[in-house]
Specification:
With about 280 residues, the protein is of the alpha+beta class. It contains 12 helices and 14 strands. This is Carbon-monoxide dehydrogenase medium subunit.
Length: about 280
């Protein structure tokens, strides 16, 4: 299929891009286009104008700033996946990115574009929640910061205003161990369910646990029931099994053409088990 007619503008600065979005409520920001353009082809999105922010230099930084990993929204997913800095200070991000679509998609898709798309099965959204990411957005009223867990409000909907652009992702650098697993019919398919995990330890005892599930509801979300099971325990087989069961029992997944609720709960339990086993062997 072909998209409906639209205009195309390539602004020269972030400020100009914000003004263009503010001037037309039906305008959409275009970064890598790996999510938006297919939706336009299926007539699920009908923007009047595409504001191409994919080449704005303000959005391409990838750096360490004291205790924070700062990633510009326009950084390509493949660049983050292969970055030595990401591998060193935030390996969970690289683990999650390896499951995003295929190599060609990650070479065009951007970090900010995936988060702003807010797909309930998006690996990057789950990783952002598990890592307590702060999302910086810029609009006509200036910059503001929103927690990743508060960004995703419904399937393909975020808390961003129409004139706001997601410009930066800030990931706190912590001494944590990570794991990521998902269950999909084929590599590159949308996940039936998945889990991103970030755990901190004092000796062999879990002191802080952050787990986020994907593909199990209207949005990516944290799994507090599983987190509570893990806190204050050694990460042994009993703890991992109990946390995986808690994650599955707490989920209320949808019944759709991809899987029924029981299948998704079983997939979530398996994904949680695998992700936590990765942490245990990290």
């Amino acid at each position: 299929m072909k998209p409906p007619p639209f205009d195309y503008v390539r602004p020269g600065s972030l400020g100009e891009a914000v003004r263009l979005l503010a001037a037309d409520e039906d305008a959409k920001a275009l970064a890598g286009g790996q999510s938006l353009l297919p939706m336009m082809n299926f007539r699920l999105a009908r923007p009047s104008v595409l504001v191409d922010i994919g080449r704005l230099p303000e959005l391409t930084e990838l750096r360490r700033d004291d205790g924070v990993l700062v990633i510009g929204a326009g950084v390509r997913q493949r660049a983050a996946e292969t970055s030595p800095l990401v591998r060193q200070v935030c390996p969970l991000l690289g683990q999650a990115l390896r499951h995003v679509g295929h190599h060609q998609i990650r070479s065009r898709g951007t970090i900010g574009g995936s988060l702003a798309h807010a797909d309930p099965a998006a690996e990057l959204c789950a990783a952002a929640c598990a890592l307590d990411a702060e999302i910086v957005v810029t609009g006509t009223d200036g910059r503001r910061t929103v927690a990743a867990a508060e960004l995703f409000v419904a399937p393909y909907q975020t808390s961003l205003a129409a004139d706001e652009i997601l410009t930066e992702v800030r990931l706190p650098i912590r001494d944590a161990r990570h794991g990521f697993a998902e269950i999909a019919r084929r590599a590159g398919d949308f996940a039936i369910a998945g889990v991103a995990a970030a755990l901190e330890f004092d000796g062999g005892t879990v002191t802080r646990a952050r787990l986020a599930g994907l593909g199990i509801g209207g949005t990516v979300r944290r799994l507090p029931e599983a987190e509570e099971v893990l806190r204050g325990r050694a990460l042994d087989g009993d703890a991992i099994g109990a946390a995986a069961r808690a994650a599955a029992d707490s989920a209320t997944p949808p019944d759709d053409l991809h899987a029924d609720p029981e299948t998704r709960r079983a997939a979530l339990r398996a994904a949680a088990q695998r992700a936590l086993e990765q942490v245990a062997h990290d």
